[in-house]
Design brief:
- About 15% of the residues lie in helices and about 40% in strands.
- It is built from four helices and 17 strands.
- The chain has a 17-stranded mixed β-sheet that branches.
- It is globular and about 50 Å long.
């Protein structure tokens, strides 16, 4: 059975399995994501990320991301930061500004490098959308929160008890208001001005962090008057710096990325 080399990385505890598809073919990534993400019988992760060459000249590399349940996501902020670190530190590019093709468009990664090591990465996440009829249909069930699309759907609820998401996240993900399901964030403004957030990710459940979720929370906080347009988002796995620019209306996310380990695993799809 053919072996597949992989790298496990995390951004604020949001852990994924990364495979360089310029070296390894993954013919059925949904199946691989389900099998390999299993924390008891596989490698264990929030999902699978495929790093590839870009088919478009406007981008340097591409990413595809599959949740732990095998569903494909459009974008992941934490994974994009990890990809930037991977590409630079593994010698696949000398660039410190990388254009990454995702299903929600091309994202620009700015790597902050010290002594040959990527310390943090700032990602231009693009403009948020507060309305998207393909992702959100407002109704009485969803009057408590704010919908924000960061290329993928988020619904942010400001709630003093952010742990309530453990009870309500799964149900809210599947509400009829969200035709393609939804990522759910419960948030609380803290006395020091930071925003405490817990995340239920579409297709993965409770995760340590969510980059697009942090961006959506910062936007929702600004829209509702709960916080300024520059905020620190504190999640279970760490803190992200989010700025919703008044210059270009883009959201900029800055945070760390880290290697966990490298390994090989059998590819059941290939003899």
């Amino acid at each position: 059975m053919k072996k597949i080399a992989f790298t496990k990385m995390h951004g604020c505890g949001n852990d994924y399995i990364y495979v360089n598809t310029m070296q390894h073919d993954i013919p059925c990534p949904s199946e691989a994501a389900r099998a390999w993400s299993d924390r008891h019988k596989g490698i264990g992760s929030d999902g699978l990320v495929l790093i590839g060459a870009s088919p478009l000249p406007e981008a340097d590399f591409s990413m595809r991301i599959f949740n732990a349940d095998g569903s494909e996501a459009m974008m992941c902020g934490n994974a994009s930061r990890c990809i930037g670190k991977y590409l630079y530190e593994r010698g696949l590019t000398p660039k410190t500004e990388i254009r990454l093709l995702t299903l929600s468009g091309i994202k620009t990664l700015n790597l902050h490098v010290a002594n040959g090591t990527v310390d943090t990465v700032t990602v231009d996440m693009g403009e948020p959308l507060l309305e998207d009829s393909n992702l959100f249909v407002a109704n009485a069930e969803t009057c408590e929160g704010t919908f924000v699309s960061m290329g993928n759907p988020h619904y942010v609820v400001f709630n003093d008890d952010v742990d309530e998401i453990e009870e309500r996240g799964r149900t809210m993900e599947h509400l009829p208001a969200f035709p393609q399901r939804c990522n759910i964030e419960f948030a609380r403004i803290q006395t020091d001005g930071t925003i405490r957030v817990r995340v239920w990710e579409r297709g993965s459940g409770i995760t340590q962090a969510c980059g697009t979720g942090a961006c959506a929370t910062a936007v929702a906080a600004a829209v509702t008057g709960n916080a300024p347009r520059h905020a620190k988002i504190v999640m279970d796995g760490g803190t992200l710096d989010i700025e919703w620019s008044t210059t270009d209306n883009h959201v900029y996310m800055t945070g760390p990325a880290a290697f966990i380990f490298d390994g090989e695993i059998d590819n059941p799809q290939q003899p």
